[in-house]
Amino acid sequence: MSLNLAAEKQVAIAAVRRACVLTSSVFNKLVKNETVTKDDKSPVTVGDYSAQAVVNTILSRTFPDDPIVGEEDATDLRQESGFALRDRIIQLANECITGELVPGEKEEWGLGPNQSQSVDELLDAIDRGNYDGGSTGRMWTLDPIDGTKGFLRGEQYAVCLALIINARVELGVIGCPNLPVNGANPSGPRGCIFYAVRGQGAFQVPLADPFTTTPTRVSIPVLPGDQLNLLESVEKAHAKLSFNELVARELGVTRAPTRMDSQAKYCALARGDGGVYLRIPTGTGYKEKIWDHAPGSVLVEEAGGIITDSRGQPLNFGLGRTLGENYGVIGAGKDVHPRVLAAVQKVQRESPEEA
Ligand SMILES: Nc1ncnc2c1ncn2[C@@H]1O[C@H](COP(=O)(O)OS(=O)(=O)O)[C@@H](OP(=O)(O)O)[C@H]1O
Ligand SMILES: [Mg+2]
Ligand SMILES: [Mg+2]
Ligand SMILES: [Mg+2]
């Protein structure tokens, strides 16, 4: 049964749209000391923190009882060494949240021009993302900037938000400020939002034109010789690209893969720009985070695709902040997915050193 979730969808799209405007403008103003390295060596910028503050503030005003699993937390910003960064984040978040309504947003979701939030309010909003997750009830999951490395390079990144109810992703919204609106015209206008409510289909809407919504579908290969376009990570540390080469060979794919940061890969798959999402872990024991896959998975499923791990198991969003025992992610259209899964498993059997 499909849930309605009309209000949740509108709030989530409005919040993601605001965060996209914020992060695009931050990119143009970013200076060197506005990026810090987290304990796991990954980068985080004033853009990530302020986008999480904005989205969490909007969600908390509308759905005050819903917990949020967000990527970032404000611990570093509460220490004296983080005060300069903190002040910049507060300024950016307040500018964004008190700015003009974004189209499609209702008055009561945003904050008025005189409603700047205090430092504590915004740090607490960031920390609303500290929920541990779990298998029951409602929770949101937020990646304020997915693909921070892509963001810093001026390439693909995404603002990603999903609503999970009883461990099932029911709503996903992904904003891609740098993704061409038309995949067939890469030099054309950029910036789009993708969204899906389970049972209601998947859609794309340009960031600049919120009233032109188009349904998206995964592509269906017509001829047996049709070349699949593999969508892969950019960072070698995130996915084993040599494994992907063996899978491509097994599938008879000779065209070069498309490498792209972030859940923009799921969006490309959902609108038929790519044929396969393939992410095989590098064997370091890294556990995938739910915010890196929740919105993308419902989007692709609603666009007619299938998402599993490399064993063919569904992704389990009910185990906490990570996907736990899921190993790797394979996404593709219904007809293609079984072929890719078989190819992955064959390579795992025949080249165990790669698996
Ligand atoms: N070691 C390792 N293995 C797998 N995944 C990792 C790893 N380290 C980080 N991450 C997460 O990867 C997120 C970005 O994924 P991408 O697919 O965009 O990767 S890539 O940048 O294109 O390679 C990235 O998301 P963001 O931190 O939001 O950018 C991380 O959550
Ligand atoms: Mg990160
Ligand atoms: Mg991420
Ligand atoms: Mg992130």
TrEMBL record:
It comes from Ceriporiopsis subvermispora (strain B). Belongs to the inositol monophosphatase superfamily. One of its GO terms (biological process) is sulfate assimilation. Its cofactor is Mg(2+). It is an enzyme of class 3 (hydrolase). It holds the Pfam family Inositol_P. It catalyses: 3'-phosphoadenylyl sulfate + H2O = adenosine 5'-phosphosulfate + phosphate; adenosine 2',5'-bisphosphate + H2O = AMP + phosphate; adenosine 3',5'-bisphosphate + H2O = AMP + phosphate. Its EC number is 3.1.3.7. SUPFAM superfamilies: Carbohydrate phosphatase (SSF56655). This is 3'(2'),5'-bisphosphate nucleotidase. Keywords: Hydrolase, Magnesium, Metal-binding. InterPro entries: DPNP, Inositol_monoP_metal-BS, Inositol_monoP_superfamily, Inositol_monophosphatase-like. Mg(2+) binds at E71, D143, I145, D146, D292. GO terms for molecular function: 3'(2'),5'-bisphosphate nucleotidase activity; metal ion binding.
